[in-house]
Amino acid sequence: MADVTEIVSAIRRFRSEHRLRPSARIEAFVRPADARQRAALDALATEVTVLAGLERLELVDRREPRGGEQRLVAAGAEIAVPLAGLVDVDAARRQLDKQTAKLEADLARVSAKLDDPSFTAKAPPDVVEKQRVRRGELRDALEALHAQRELLGES
User: Does domain 90-152 have CATH number 1.10.150?
Assistant: First the structure.
């Protein structure tokens, strides 16, 4: 349920950051992080559609990056939102750059912890493993954002 809330929040944040009218309905293509997340999104599809202000919510196993889309990352899921007729592409580039900077800072913090021998020696093994998993998730998210930024081209 927390994952679904995070995904809805990411879409709502996208709408807010791009100053979309509340009446504007958008499409979202979501690649869930795992089967559990897919099941939760399936079960709550109507609620997600209403709360996120969507015209269409489609869960996908795979979706190649396409020009004219912005990719969001939330709870490990990738969300593709077609921009046609919705947003200023320059503003979308700035937003991607901002999101990338935040994830890079998070990755630097997690990596600093894992590179610190005293942390890895003193922290419980499950905490260390959780940080390793988080580092992998951050790297994957950054890769997706860099690919999306490339699709939007240079400003």
Answer: no
> What are the structural domain ranges in the chain?
2-87, 90-152
For the entire predicted model, the pTM comes to: 0.63
Q: How many CB atoms lie within 10 A of CB 61?
A: 7
Specify the 3-state DSSP secondary structure of 27.
strand
Report the distance separating Cα 128 and Cα 125, nearest Å.
5
- For the chain, how big is the Rg over CA atoms in Å? 17
130 close to 84: Cβ distance less than 8 angstroms: no
pLDDT string in tens for the chain (155-residue length): 899 999 999 999 989 877 888 889 999 999 999 999 999 999 999 999 999 999 999 999 998 878 778 889 999 999 999 988 887 778 778 888 999 999 999 999 999 999 999 999 999 999 999 999 999 999 999 998 888 787 776 65
Let me know the angle formed at the C-alpha of 81 by 75 and 83, rounded to the nearest 5 degrees. Answer: 150
- Joined together, the tokens standing for residue 103 give 């994830």
Whether the CB-CB separation of 82 and 69 falls below 8 Å is answered with: yes
User: DSSP secondary-structure letter at 95?
Assistant: H
